[in-house]
Amino acid sequence: MSAATLAGQRLLISAGPTYEDIDPVRFIGNRSSGKMGFALAAAAARRGAEVVLVAGPVHLQTPAGVHRIDVRSAAQLHAAVLAALPADAYLGAAAVADWTPRTVAAHKLKKRAGVDTLTLELVRTADVLAAVAAHPQRPPLVLGFAAETDELEANARAKLLAKRLDLIAANRVGVAGSGFESDDNALTVYGRDGFARALGPAPKTQLADALLDLLATRLARP
Ligand code: PMT
To answer: Is the CB of 36 under 6 A from ligand 1?
Structure first.
């Protein structure tokens, strides 16, 4: 069976980590490689979608036919995603920092003799996914990811409701063979309408296609 087309659809996808600067040489990051989001972008472009990919700092090539916008911080990702609306779907695969330093030091923080601790004050970042879902130009389909070490289903369902999403794809992190950095993953997709489906374990490239099949069906509904 050939893959369901996405011709005529504009997909906005976020991928990769964000880096929250502490000073000119240090930052707070996370282990996202961007592979999951880039696989989605590549597969969507192959199906004929117009794809805008907002990417945090990653070492991946831009997939053919994809319009890529590079960002570094959660604030930049937030601004770039909102500026790229409207879209038919938003797929939030980026691992966006939840916290960022209140201030960025202009000069490298120096060690001082006799001072053995450093306290950083962190403030909450904006939730990009929730902002997209609450936006006046809300895409008809908003899909988030849930990266969890425990209580996968309960935590994913809570995010689905709290962020007012249509779908959430839950994946386990902190174990080999899924989540961050790995070429493979296993997803369980939950819908606000009661939908639930396990996808994989499989390579992220295959999971991207399986996820897009679900999306294409929903986007095709009148
Ligand atoms: O990049 P890879 O190495 O391939 O790994 C893939 C992945 C594990 C990063 C990916 O599959 C994944 O789970 N992405 C979401 C990671 C994450 O931040 O999950 P979360 O449960 O903390 O956040 C839930 C959702 O809210 C996510 O869609 C996230 O993009 C979004 N979010 C979170 C915080 C924030 N400030 N803004 C957001 O939009």
So the answer is: yes
Q: Is 33 in the pocket of ligand 1 (CB under 6 A)?
A: yes
Quote the tokens at residue 178: 């899924």
Contacts of 215 (CB under 8 A, 6+ apart): 6, 89, 91, 141, 143, 167
Residue 79: domain span: 10-98+119-219
Evaluate the omega torsion of the peptide bond into residue 140 and state whether it is cis, within 30 degrees of 0.
Answer: no
- Amino acid identity for residue 175 in this structure: V
Tell whether pTM > 0.90. Answer: yes
Q: What is the CA(145)–ligand 1 centre distance, in A? A: 5
In this prediction, residue 3 carries a pLDDT of 80
CATH at residue 129: 3.40.50.10300
